[in-house]
Specification:
By secondary structure, the chain is an alpha/beta fold. Helices cover 45% and strands 17% of the residues. The strands form three sheets. It has a seven-stranded mixed beta sheet with strand order 4-12-11-10-7-8-9. A three-stranded mixed beta sheet has the order 1-3-2. Helix 14 links the parallel strand 7 and strand 8.
């Protein structure tokens, strides 16, 4: 009897302690969110978007899947032990992951993407220059970001990822950066391989004990982070709170600016035209019914002579081979372009594609007329140039090709570039699209009004 009483007492005591920890953690989270809202009113739409679920059965839990913040009381309490700034910083860090959708469709190398996303979030937080986000690793992180800023065009997660993936960093250095910038657990970004959290392991807070945690995890009402990012951007623009918000506004402009999808755009370079061939899918109903009336059971069927087919005519691909354009990325662009065309059956057996390499001068013009030409080119592709960027020589060269009658109907030019060069002043007689590796590069490029911006990348394209 004494043993049973003691066991019951200890169990109740443990439950009381756990409930107290949950209550304290909820207070710390609430204080952190209140502090963000008090200092950054433009974050209102983001700060209340995430649901919160307590996991009191594990230690060190703090992460999101874009819909819900999962946390353990010990983590939250430890972050708030020396003041609320550390927890405020951690919550803002996680919110930035959501606003910039770092959790969505990460690239193949997940270790590098985790580090890049954490570094990008930290760079934005440091740009605020606010005491509310002070934390113990700030100065060391600032030094690391200063080095990255010297070697990259910007501190978006995508650019940092490419910097890490360039192969110029030692493995030990990469691991050190991961440890230095890690704040939250990214396990839920990769649910198929994650043991980070299971529905049966979730313990609800007092507010939602009657709800089924398994069902909550299956909910599909993920916040519309695209709309939230747009709302934050608009609030930032109207508040005009000063330079300390400038980096966030620039990042949100790149995040929210809509660029045409590359695969969709490519189909605009196809042309409907009549081909002299029998169209088996159509016939003249007049002859059909006349035959039935005249012969009783013998319809007259005359197929239409012409059929409309969507086919590739002539077009030009220009590769910017300046020193700032990466070779592997160029190869993926060329490969992806022809894969898209062939998958959609828009390249026929013979075609007329000029693939031009140009930096500050035209370095090569390879004419591709058959699929075999394409395969041979891709197998032996070699970039030439690696100087500065000037778009005018390529357009001058293409104009000469048009004048010489090299094209039956030039549908347009695809110009793969980083956007940093001298553009022609006059609009050419053909459509031109400047293809960029990601949204950030497209947003920064000063493309003339007659040029279209198209984004080739996507995290799976890096």
């Amino acid at each position: 009897m004494i043993f049973l009483w003691y066991h019951h007492y200890m169990r109740n005591n443990d439950e009381t302690k756990q409930n107290q920890m949950i209550s304290i953690a909820e207070d710390v989270l609430r204080a952190a969110k209140d502090r963000i809202v008090a200092n950054m009113r433009f974050m209102d739409s983001a700060i209340f978007a995430l649901r919160e679920k307590c996991d009191a059965n594990r230690e060190g839990v703090f992460g999101t899947d874009g819909a819900t913040l999962y946390y353990s009381p010990d983590y939250v309490i430890s972050m708030g032990r020396d003041g609320i700034s550390e927890m405020t910083y951690a919550y803002m860090h996680l919110l930035l992951h959501c606003m910039f959708r770092h959790y969505k469709n990460p690239p193949e190398n997940r270790q590098l993407w985790d580090i890049a996303a954490d570094m990008a979030a930290e760079a934005l937080i440091q740009s605020f220059e606010m005491d509310s986000f002070r934390h113990c690793r700030e100065e060391e992180q600032r030094e690391a970001l200063t080095q990255v800023r010297r070697e990259t065009e910007g501190l978006s997660a995508e650019r940092i990822y490419r910097w890490l993936a360039s192969g110029n960093r030692k493995l030990e250095e990469v691991h050190q950066l991961g440890d230095l910038f890690r704040v939250d657990d990214h396990g839920l970004w990769y649910p198929e391989n994650s043991n980070f959290l299971k529905p049966e392991d979730v313990q609800d807070s007092e507010e939602s004990k009657d709800e089924n945690p398994t069902e909550l995890l299956r909910e599909t009402d993920v916040p519309d982070w695209d709309r939230i990012a747009q709302m934050v951007k608009i609030s930032l623009e109207t508040e005009n709170r000063g330079a300390e918000r400038g980096e966030l506004l620039t990042a949100l402009n790149a995040r929210t600016e809509k660029h045409m999808d590359y695969s969709t755009f490519l189909r605009k370079f196809t042309l409907f035209r009549e081909n002299l061939k029998v169209d088996d899918s159509a016939f003249d109903y007049i002859f059909y019914t006349y035959g039935l009336e005249l012969y009783g059971d013998m319809p007259l069927v005359e197929p239409l002579e012409y059929a409309d087919e969507r086919t590739i005519s002539d077009f030009v691909i220009v590769i910017d081979t300046s020193a700032s354009t990466q070779g592997k990325l160029v190869e993926r662009f060329v490969q992806r372009t022809f894969d898209l065309l062939q998958e959609s059956r828009e390249i026929k057996n013979r075609f007329n594609i000029h693939l031009i390499q140009c930096d500050a001068a035209v370095q090569e013009d390879r004419i591709l007329r058959t699929r075999e030409d394409v395969h041979r080119y891709l197998e032996n592709m070699e970039l030439k140039g690696l100087g500065g960027t000037d778009y005018r020589p390529a357009f001058h060269y293409i104009n000469n090709l048009v004048e010489r009658g090299e094209f039956r109907h030039l549908q347009g030019v695809l110009y793969f570039t980083d956007g940093k060069g001298i553009f022609p002043r006059r609009k050419p007689s053909y459509d031109t699209a400047f293809i960029f590796e990601d949204d950030a590069a497209a947003s920064e490029a000063k493309v003339p009004s007659w040029g279209m911006k198209v984004v080739f990348g996507g995290k799976d394209e890096y």
